[in-house]
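One example given next:
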Amino acid sequence: MILRETQNGLRKLIIANVAVFFLQMILSTAIPFVHYFALIPRLFMKGWVWQGVTYMFLHGGLFHLFINMYILWMFGRELEYMWGTKEFYKYYFICGVGAAFIYSLFNMNSYIPVVGASGAVFGILLAYGITFPRRKLLIFPFFIPLEARYAVLLFGGIELLMLLVGGGNIAHLAHLGGLAVGYLYLRWKRRYLY
């Protein structure tokens, strides 16, 4: 019974992402959907605060959506089971909104829209690495077994490197922001739990 309830929260989150993605595809030709609901740092910092949440439900394409939802499902199931749906949602949205704020803080004058749940998903990945540090993961493309704690460091290192060298049109700073906010939140939470 508990397992069904906790998995239900993650399922709803994935369904919401898929539904909004298709809504985005349908409505983006009729109204400036992305303009209102993507994260546009200049507008976000001027008070369009809802974009800090809504951008997480928009995606740049089917592959972008699939990767984010697959990683969320893969690493989020056990976390939701352990924490419960309410705490899982709270952490997910704190990471996503925190990623939006950090990205916007360093790109205050940008009108370039940012979309995707990646900042929140990186926070989930971090929480998984902290919660199950010695759990073995098979890292693509060579399917090399790597402990979760090292996988988080590897992915974080890749994001930092891509940020420094300029990794195309991907918001690497938002990914790192999700990691940083997730880490700070978990440290703060642990301080009050123990």
Summary: The chain has a mean pLDDT of 89. The beta strands are 136-139, 144-147. The two ends are 28 Å apart (CA to CA).
